[in-house]
């Protein structure tokens, strides 16, 4: 089934469920090489007068290299039937296997084909946000206002990079 673009203002979903409970896949790259990873931290809202998504990626994640090297990335939301694939994408590094896509039973697709926004996404998704990076910032321990967050979530001091990205297209099946 092909994707169609929809107006972001018509979306009706709970981001707390979509991101935290159902999870999403952060994907970046091109037809030559791409990677995807499961994420359950993130958000959506308005920043600088634009609809944005925030994504958080730890430095050791292979997908971070692809997000850093490209202007665009995608957030793909899948139905519950893909929970096993989401688990694979959250626990298997694309550095360590020949084909992470095959390992997860997923397929890359390329959205915004033939435009500067062309980037990798997940064919099995129900909804895809095509995102253009606006801002990236490493999280620093001295910026925590609550020590418990630092101690609980960063015992290895592998602080996330936060990305704020404009949602330039929303695609649905």
From TrEMBL:
One of its GO terms (molecular function) is FMN binding. It comes from the Bacteria. Belongs to the flavoredoxin family. InterPro entries: Flavin_Rdtase-like_dom, Flavoredoxin, Split_barrel_FMN-bd. Pfam families: Flavin_Reduct. It comes from Merdimonas faecis. This is Flavin reductase. Residues 18-171 form the Flavin reductase like domain.
């Amino acid at each position: 089934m092909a994707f169609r673009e929809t107006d972001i203002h018509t979306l009706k979903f709970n981001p707390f469920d979509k991101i935290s409970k159902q999870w999403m896949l952060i994907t970046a790259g091109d037809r030559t090489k791409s990677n995807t990873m499961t994420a359950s931290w993130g958000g959506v809202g308005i920043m600088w007068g634009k609809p944005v998504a925030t994504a958080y990626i730890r430095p050791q994640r292979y997908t971070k290299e692809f997000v850093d090297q490209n202007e665009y990335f995608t957030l793909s939301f899948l139905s519950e039937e893909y929970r096993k694939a989401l688990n694979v994408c959250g626990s298997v590094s694309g550095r360590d296997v020949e084909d992470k896509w095959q390992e997860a039973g997923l397929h890359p697709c390329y959205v915004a084909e033939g435009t500067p926004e062309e980037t990798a996404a997940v064919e099995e998704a129900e909804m895809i946000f095509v995102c253009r990076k606006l801002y990236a910032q490493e999280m620093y321990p001295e910026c925590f206002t609550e020590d418990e967050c630092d101690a609980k979530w960063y015992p290895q001091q592998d602080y996330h990079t936060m990305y704020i990205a404009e949602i330039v297209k929303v695609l649905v099946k």
